[in-house]
Write a structure and sequence with these properties.
This protein has 330 residues and is mainly beta. It has one domain. It is 12% helix and 36% strand. Strands 6-12-3-2-14-16-15-18 form an eight-stranded mixed beta sheet, covered by helices on one side. The chain has a four-stranded antiparallel beta sheet with strand order 5-10-9-8.
């Protein structure tokens, strides 16, 4: 069972509480599978199902401004658009001997979950073994990282049952979306766990944040920043459930190599909130004379920050994520 690297994450942060919403896409021939998500503290409420339309509504708000650029047909330029395509169970066992405390359990949609805390990395791996969550030896540093930091783990599991794929075929679907909330003094992406399953990949995670101020990361490529308006919330009802007029919405790409990632990604508030909306240019082919024609390029600017110009033939960024561990039936 593998987790598709195309994933988008939504995070809200207010009053010292973070809500983390994720929806990885899985595909494989296993009949039992799941994942582990570390969190810095105990949950404020049980995990719930999120809104499947939330990301598309956020993308509608953060969509780039589109402008037309004239190109000379006589010079061999092709026509087209610069816009890219963002491609985007069985009961778990309880404590295994000493060292793992299963704090709470429950059901969210088709997924079973358990919130647990381990006294040592060894007791945690014993629990994973007993519950048939496979992991490579290279995952040990990531487990040590979270156990020593006093973090908790949320284990999700599901059994395909009657929908189990026949031999030679794969079962594919979306894991969630699932949302969970926990108290934290600083908004965080639990990215260190990505290195537990594979240390050879580079990732670009598409992240949306909603908070009272702009949230930023050192390893970021900002795509949008701006305050939500009443019109936004009227037109996008799922966004209205997680934000209010005046809240700051950001869209960011987080890029890193899993093998070199030794810490989680902590988000900070910049000295000032500064608006940004990207501009994408669409080619319009025109007939040019012997002398040529003048190409119009009006570069947009919002709130003092120059909007990024995307090259017509730019390489499409692939949105990637690999969350948690894969579980196979033995």
């Amino acid at each position: 069972m593998t987790i598709n690297p195309s994933q988008k994450i939504v995070l809200t942060f207010r009053g010292g509480v973070e809500t983390y919403i994720f929806k990885p896409h899985f595909c494989g021939s296993s009949t039992d599978f799941g994942l582990i998500l570390p969190v810095p503290s105990t949950l404020t409420q049980n995990p719930t199902l999120g809104d499947s339309d939330l990301v598309s509504e956020l993308e509608a708000i953060t969509a780039p401004r589109v402008e037309t650029v004239e190109v000379c047909a006589s010079r061999g330029f092709g026509s087209g658009s610069s816009k890219g395509d963002d491609s985007n169970g069985s009961q778990l066992a309880g404590s295994v001997g000493d060292g793992v405390n299963v704090i709470s359990t429950g059901q969210v949609g088709q997924f079973q979950w358990q919130l647990l805390k381990a006294d040592s990395a060894t007791s945690f791996t014993d629990w994973l073994d007993a519950n048939q969550f496979p992991y490579p030896a290279s995952a040990q540093p990531a487990f040590d990282h979270y156990v020593q930091a006093g973090w908790y783990f949320v284990a999700f599991s599901v059994t395909a049952g009657a929908n189990a794929p026949p031999s030679g075929y794969k079962l594919c679907g979306d894991f969630g979306p699932i949302q969970l909330s926990f108290p934290t003094s600083q908004a965080v992406i639990p990215a260190r766990i990505a290195a537990a399953s594979d240390t050879s990949y580079s990732f670009t995670w598409r992240l949306f944040t909603v908070s009272s101020h702009e949230l930023a990361s050192v390893t970021q490529s900002l795509r949008f920043a701006g305050a939500l308006t009443t019109d936004n919330l009227t037109q996008e009802p799922m966004v209205a459930k997680i934000g209010s007029a005046g809240d700051w919405l950001t869209e960011t790409d987080l890029s890193f190599y899993s093998g070199s990632l030794t810490q989680d990604i902590w988000l900070t508030q910049p000295p000032a909130d500064t608006a940004l909306r990207r501009t994408e240019y669409v080619e319009k082919e025109v007939t040019c004379g012997v002398i040529g024609c003048s190409l119009s390029r009006n570069h947009g600017q919002t709130g003092g920050r120059i909007a990024g110009l995307l090259a017509i033939a730019s390489v499409v960024l692939l949105v990637g994520a690999r969350h948690g561990l894969r579980r196979a039936r033995t």
